[in-house]
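Help!! Second protein's tokens look totally different from the first
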Amino acid sequence: MGIKVGIIGATGYVGEELVRILCRHPRVTGITVAAKDAPGQPMSRVYPHLAGFADMEILDMDRVPELISGSDLVFIALPHGLSVPVAREAMAAGKRVIDMAADFRLPDQALYEQWYQAAHEAPDLLGEAVYGLPELFRSAVRTARLVANPGCYPTSALLALAPLMKHGLVEQDSLIVDSKSGISGAGRTLALGSHYSECNDNVRAYSVATHRHTPEISYYASVLAGSKVEVVFTPHLIPMTRGILSTVYAELLRSMDAAYLRRVYRDFYSGEEFIQLMGEGEWPETKWVQGTNRCCLGLTVVGRKRLIVVSVIDNLVKGAAGQAVQNMNLMFDLPEGAGLNYPGLYP
């Protein structure tokens, strides 16, 4: 049986990427899109590279009830703070929901309100939402009505941290995540910081010690560890379009070599089709994953007790739309890689 999907907020970069992936998905038989921008126009007029693949009309936002009614699953690709009423309406209609924003990622209401400086409009749904990082929470995703798709930075960081947390291998107060992202992570909305002349030939740290992905990384690292973990996280904007490279630093609890740790990671991610572990002396690059749903990991040990892990993903695919489709596949009991098994783009 085919799946009919609706995408609300389809004209942003994440929405477009969802359309690009889903229009080739072997089990998706219908895609309906809505957005406040370009209503009444075909999707392929807003994004000409989709011509012949995604020529469906963009519905105005006042037609969202129509979109929900005709969908089996609704992707919400709206800015933070706008997902709650849509999710509630879709769930009331018996539809399954994947939210791409941060509205349901933190199940702790007080933590959410502390970092987002706003009251949560649906605290009753926070406990039901499942954090959609399939490699770590696969069984819960399968049966979920509401999936909170992870942030792009947390995806890269948590996949690097997970084996360490589950096996209790590091000092929990020693975790540092240094991440660098391409400009598409800022979205399509015009902003001074993403203007070409502002970001070209420039690298800058931003939201130092205050970035809203910090509690998300720390919270789920704590879930994996079974005790409270505080991660120091610093994001940087670099002059490229796509990709995230996160370098994770940690102090090991005891001396161990890189070969042993690679075995730990290899065993932890055994059978995971979207995780690729590098060999000795190999360090992943963002171009290796561009356009794919893969995460590549490389690691080494300095002085036998200082660990360095490098994680790379495409922020719009494994960091957003691709991971959402991976979650959809789980929710509908499809092969996890359906619609996602293709090589990347190079150069």
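Here's the second one for comparison:
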Amino acid sequence: MANTKKDKRLPMNNLNDIIKEFGNLDSYKTCPEFWKAVPENGLKFVESLHGATVRVIGQSAGKRDIIALEYGDKEETGATVNNLQSSLASKIANPDPTSIFPEEFYGLKRRVKPVLILQGALHGGELTGTVASLNLCNIIESGVDLRGKAWPELQSMAGQYRLLVIPWSNPDGTARAGIACSSGIPAELYSRLTMGVKKGGIPFKYPENKKQYPVPLAEVAYLGSYYNDNGYNLQYDFCETERQPETKTWMKYYLEEKPDAVVAWHCDNGSLFSMPPALLPVGFQHQVSRIAGAVRQGLCRKGYGVGRLSWAQLPGLGKDNLTQVEAIYHVCGALPLLCELPAGTDNKLFTPDEMLDISLITLEELLFFGLEDGFRPYEYRRKIINSTRE
């Protein structure tokens, strides 16, 4: 697996303005051994795995490999079409809101194992999900995370899935992240490293940075980890007429797999699963809410009162715009779940141990939900699977 550009100076990688404001960054670069966040230490761990099939599924704009780690055999479904929207449009009228799984796209038979994709670091410096996913791989293979902590139920449930892990879906951004573990760093510093800095020391700020697409590289001193090497925020790239290679990679791979669900890991103060996307079928929106509630309650029971009980008062709730999350459903038919794990910055501090525990409990609750109720709305998966075995 090539890790290209490893020894080359990245374009738009001038940290001088950030160092002038915050001082030397070396103190923020030390991570616990279990915190496998970036290719420099993560790839060695990946190469040590013996139960995963590791595939290069594409390359980034900067010619870095995008890899997937695969657990569990692939089951064929008998699907004959790779365009969900055409399949949904094949009926002139459809008064049944539960009839949203056309057989030509989803297949004539159900898979025994649900298929779940864990997508890490679309914004390359948001790495808590990548750490969680790689620790999950260790749990699958040994029963313990990389700290040596046992997770027997999580290991058992993960073995009942076809589980696909993409640790770095934007490896260009990750290469530019500046730090691997954001626990305890100033939130403003994390913002600079993520969003970037214009020439003259003016920081790009969220969400105003989205008004320019792509980021004009000629105006950039430090291109933050949000973007690939071409300056694209890949959260919105699917709308482009000439898509970036990272977007083409996930679209092709997700269509090949047609997963039941995709978790897109991101980071903020730990708000966890986002509000139901407005431009999904109602059943899928309801399923997002159910999962968000189940995960939050599981975390609360174990002493972590993180996440939002309600998104109802947030600005932009139900805004009819598309992100990669909604696009995942419209491309491959999966339940799309955006999960904002803690970054651990100084305005909402979590230790690396706490961040990993929160992440793995989140996965434990999510996998339990997928095995019992199932990710598809309007179905009780346990009943369906039992009926296929009779």
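Reply: Different proteins will give different token patterns, so don't panic. The chain has one domain: 16-86+99-255+343-388.
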